[in-house]
Amino acid sequence: MGNNTEKKEVPEAILEAYDLLLQYRLVNILRPLQWESYFVKEGWTFHCEFSVAYPNLAGIPSNVIMKFLLQESFPLSCVEVYSLSKEVAGFPHQELLTDKLCLKNDWYAPRTSQKLIKYVQWTIEWLKDAASNNLIDDQDPYELPDFYSLTVYSAYRHINPVFFNESPSTFNLWKKQIGKFGTVYIVSSKLHSAFYACQFCNQENIPIIESKYSPIIDESDYKLTGYWILVEDIVFKRHRPPLTYGEAKEICEKSALDFYSILRKAWECNTNYTFGIILIGFPIPRTYRGENVEIHWQPLWIDNWASTKKINIPGKRSKKNNVWRFLIKSDRFHPSKNLPWGESENVSNDRLFKRSSLSLTLKHSKITVIGCGALGSPIVDMLARGGIEAINTFDSDTLHPGNLSRHILNGTFIGSNKALAIAKELSITFPLSSIKGFPEHIPPSTFEKQKAINKILVESDIFIDCTTSESAFIWLNNIALEHGKKLISMFFNAYAEVLTLCISGGQISCLDIYRELCLSIQKNELPVDKEYYFKDIAKEEQIYEGVGCWHSTFPALNVHIQLLAATAVDLINHVIQNRGNKGYAALIQRESFEGMAVTPHSVVKLIWEKEYP
User: Fold this and answer.
1) Is the N-terminal amide bond of 314 cis, ω within 30° of 0?
2) Lowest mean pLDDT: which of 43-47, 65-69, 210-214, 229-233?
3) Residues 68-76: what's their mean pLDDT?
4) What are phi and psi of 36, to 5 degrees?
5) 20 to 30 A from 551, CA-CA: which of 285, 320, 357, 445?
6) Could you read off the pLDDT of 458-471 as tens digits, one per residue?
7) Domain of residue 513, CATH code
8) Is 413 left (phi over 0), alpha (psi -120 to 50) or beta?
9) Sign of CA dihedral 400, 401, 406, 407
10) Residue 252 burial (CB < 10 Å; 0-12/13-18/19+)?
């Protein structure tokens, strides 16, 4: 923080807004406009005084001082408001490090000189709500204390965040552990810039919870052992967490825990790192003042024995007891020393797919996708991002440069097997989902492979065939019939103009549905021209000089494939959720923009569908 002595001219827009504020006389200006660097921001600032009704429930004094910061891009940028009164700190909707107020969305403020007036009015409302403890309504989503801003100037800010897996289903396991502590085992992902809390054990080292992350995470060689503490509440004052070692000690004492004895255990842990970790957990609700439903974990990164054993203590040997006593008395672990809070994130599927997900029926199904090319790869991607927790992928092909224009994988996977690469990529994205790849051809080439693949398929609920291979389709249809599985087959024509979707039912196979559909098209009974539907690609469009007929040269654009694939997944989700075990067939047509009138119409149409018993 500090003032910039270089003379700068106040922008006309800021000067106009400031003069307007003086005319309104909403606040008492204590220090006029000046250019200033404040924390990580630069802009024109002024100090002003607000009046607050006193006495009040929050103990805010009758007069409080605020700093307003306007960036040079004003009025396009937002106005930032900081409390300069120590009594206005630690509230919900307030940044903990800077005491900046979290006001209404800037979208609702005018882009004129009136904007500053609006922010002053919002500040008046904020102070009124803070004084009456009404900043958050009972039904508002629960807001975690602001740990994030505390990491900005932390000595451990470079350390990766800790990912953990907690939900209402695990909360019951923790209820009896409140006021206790134990050991936590953590791995560092080679592919993710994160630590994963894999196993929590009690004081007897008996597992309480073990999170099953994807095999890619579990294969990590980087292990870290630390301690966990579970307290009744993390709030030290108003809505802020403890900021010092001494305050952490007080929080733990409320839950009958000895913070410093646990701190020493974490300090003594032998790890491959020069730091240790304590996860401090506490119950949280879904809504403010609601019933607690899950545990949140926040890491403390601390100096450990490996990083402090070489400390030179005058007149004493660097034994553990001597070093520990020195650390308590010095600025390392002294009660007045700031806590080195770190970052964490709950990566449970409940959280990752809270914003949007497919139906519960489909989410809880085990799905195997056969064929991971131009159509199969976006299908797998959409299913994984829709919250499907168990997916298998099959494809014997490798990724070539020519595939990249119509594939979800990037160039780093060239030469890799498509099924394995997709599974790896999506496992990194969704570490708690089981996504496995198999580099196998369908149908299998030998009886031994057939037996092994049958076992994998039988464990699935739904097969999705995206191969465009008749032999693969027939083989999968037989497996589905034999084991009572649902088979879905889909494919598009050469220009991705029409996608065909067939879903088997309890009394009809996917193959029978497709054969009936083809027969109906041949008889001109469906709203698609048979010449158009069964048309082959012209020879000059199939073969490029020096490439050969084996190359994937069909002319469909990626954007058109994506449109049809997204519609197909949406339709599958609807059918599985609402039509039970009935069979289903549909034709999805992509509309062309050529010759389109000004009047807009649907880009993708469901031109025909039929339900089967």
Assistant:
1) no
2) 210-214
3) 96
4) -155, 145
5) 445
6) 999 999 999 999 99
7) 3.40.50.720
8) alpha
9) positive
10) buried
Write down the mean pLDDT value for the chain.
Answer: 90
At residue 274, what is the residue type? T
What is the phi-psi region of residue 2: left when phi exceeds 0, alpha when psi lies from -120 to 50, beta otherwise? left
349-371 residue pLDDT tens: 888 887 778 999 999 999 999 99
Q: In this structure, which amino acid lies at residue 411? A: G
Q: How far apart are CA 514 and CA 584, in angstroms?
A: 10
Strands 390-394 and 195-201 turn out to be unpaired
Residue 318 counted as domain residue: yes
Are 233 and 285 in contact by the 8 Å Cβ rule? The answer is no
Q: Is 406 in the same domain as 517?
A: yes
Quick one: CA dihedral 312, 315, 318, 324, positive or negative? negative
In this structure, the answer to whether residues 270 and 407 fall within a common structural domain is no
Q: What's the pTM value of the predicted model, to 2 decimals?
A: 0.86
Which residues touch 260 (CB under 8 Å, ≥6 apart)? Answer: 249, 328, 333
Q: Tokens for 466, please give them.
A: 């995206």
| pLDDT, tens digit (0-9, with 9 covering 90-100), for 518-553 | 999 999 999 998 887 887 655 555 444 444 444 456
Query: Do the domain assignments include residue 264?
Result: yes
Percent of the chain with pLDDT over 70: 92
Neighbours of 566 (CB within 10 A): 14
Range of the domain at 598: 353-612
